[in-house]
Design brief:
With about 400 residues, the protein is α+β, with helices and mostly antiparallel strands. It contains 9 helices and 14 strands. The chain folds into 4 domains: about 60 residues; about 140 residues, Elongation Factor Tu (Ef-tu), domain 3; about 60 residues, Beta Barrel (OB fold (Dihydrolipoamide Acetyltransferase, E2P)), CATH 2.40.50; about 120 residues. Helices cover about 50% and strands about 20% of the residues. It has a 6-stranded antiparallel β-barrel with strand order 1-10-13-12-11-14. Strands 2-9-7-4 form a 4-stranded antiparallel beta sheet, with no helix packed on it.
Length: about 400
């Protein structure tokens, strides 16, 4: 409308004034609704052509979009296991800091396993003391067996020497009994040695392994008990949190609530421009934003980043071929906007719906590349035409309360 009005001022209006005051034709007589096209055909045609060219230049070099919002991060409040809630530490809409407890699950089963593991450790310690006592007893038995074996071996040797010199003094039966005694005491000694080795293996290998298993079980249960208390991972505000004591939480079915994380640094706005604006948009480009949550205000911003890929072109590998003709949308160029003045947008709630206008600026191009003549004038005219979009976005911000309430 503004473009048509401006074009009409230099086309239709001079044509009408010429025919009204130069040719003497009167509105409503010679110039009627039926003769307007014939009388003002040159002005109307010129106005339409000029308006189309002007609209094209303005909206191409100064792109605008209504797809602007400030995205924010949400964190699902989930537990790592299923359980019944025993304690709730926060309420809905409460602000929490990183590390604050949110709720706790029932840990009676884990605590019972932990107590069992502690009892196993105590049992292993007691078994270790008993094994050490048995080891001492086995060593004493081995000493007695070695002494008895040495005495029996000495007695057998003495009897054999006597039997060599005098067969009548030592009979063959006595020698066999002595040899059997030596063999029996040798077996007793070997049995004592084997018992000592078994007890030492139990003390050095078996009991430490059982102790490690019990300690690992105890540590596992302690970890499960620690995981039973859910903590806030980031600073933010708890939303949609209606958890109460006695509720059963299952991480596979639904979260307990949502934690709206605080934004890091200055809040950014994401604007989706048409793909035709890809050659015009650039980092550092000045923009103006008007938001529904802050009507009657204009926020100057600058393009801080441009996403190198268009989201509508992404796909996930599957067992079906992608038909490009079935893509739902052509997608937009995503640009990140940051406020020019620090803290200027701090009062805008995250997720607000906004409109944005970007303005081209060829001043540096003209000065650095030494552009002059008609091209320099044309580029300055293109930059100056941005005032039209600036006026439009201000009109939209002004009428926003009325259009939102009445329409």
């Amino acid at each position: 409308m503004i473009e048509l009005f401006l074009c009409g001022l230099v086309t239709v209006l001079p044509d009408y004034l010429f025919r009204r005051y130069r040719q003497g034709k009167r509105l409503g007589h010679e110039i009627t609704i039926y003769s307007v096209w014939y009388e003002l055909r040159w002005g109307i045609t010129s106005c339409a052509i000029l308006a189309a060219m002007l609209i094209t230049v303005i909206f191409y070099f100064h792109p605008s979009t209504s797809n602007v919002t400030s995205l924010f991060r949400t964190v699902a409040i989930l537990s790592e296991r299923t359980g019944r809630v025993t304690e709730v530490y926060v309420e809905n809409n409460q602000r929490v800091s990183s590390g604050d407890p949110i709720f706790k699950l029932d840990t009676s089963e884990e605590e019972a396993r932990a107590e069992t593991a502690r009892r196993q450790l105590a049992e292993i310690e007691a078994q270790t003391e008993i094994s050490r006592a048995l080891l001492s007893a086995s060593k004493a038995r081995l000493s007695r067996a070695e002494i008895a074996y040495a005495q029996a071996l000495e007695d057998l040797d003495r009897r054999e020497r006597v039997a060599v010199n005098n067969r009548n003094v030592v009979s063959e039966q006595e020698l066999e009994r002595a040899r059997s005694l030596v063999l029996s005491l040798s077996e007793d000694r070997n049995e004592a040695v084997a018992e000592i080795v078994s007890i030492e293996n139990e003390i050095d290998l078996l009991l430490p392994a059982r102790r490690e298993v019990a300690e690992a079980t105890l540590e596992e249960t302690r970890t499960q008990i620690a995981k039973s208390t859910i903590y806030a991972g980031v600073n933010g505000v708890v939303q949609q949190f209606q958890l109460r004591v006695g509720d059963v939480v299952n991480p596979l079915l639904r979260p307990a609530g949502v934690l709206v994380a605080d934004s890091i640094g200055e809040m950014r706005f994401q604007a989706g421009f048409d793909q035709i604006s890809a050659t015009v948009l650039s980092i550092g480009m000045l923009t103006e934003v008007a938001c529904s949550t802050r009507p009657l205000e204009i926020f100057p911003m600058v393009v801080a980043d441009i996403q190198p890929a268009i989201a509508a072109g992404q796909y996930r590998a599957s067992d079906q071929l992608v038909d490009v003709g079935q893509r739902a949308s052509n997608g937009t160029i995503l640009a990140a906007l940051e406020p020019v003045f620090e803290g200027h947008t701090s009062d805008i709630p995250p997720g607000s719906s906004c409109k944005a206008v970007a303005y081209s600026n060829h001043r540096e191009e003209i000065s650095t590349e030494g552009i002059s003549g008609v091209k320099a004038v044309a580029l300055r005219i293109v930059d100056g035409l941005g005032i039209t979009n600036a006026l439009i976005i201000r009109i939209q911000a002004t009428v926003l309360p009325f259009s939102a309430i009445f329409f």
